[in-house]
Request: fold
Amino acid sequence: MTTPLLHLLDGLRCEICRCRDVLWLDPVRGLVECHECGQTAITLPAEDGGDAL
Ligand SMILES: [Zn+2]
Reply:
């Protein structure tokens, strides 16, 4: 049962490889992954006041 709930972040650009429309959001894990260079970034919802930042 692998149902990837990935959403293409349309119009966004990867900070690493500068490619556009290659960032996919994984809302389950809170990750953004670039399918061009493989870079992943953790996106934390700013609900707790952002103490992790
Ligand atoms: Zn990239």
Remarks:
- The radius of gyration is 12 Å.
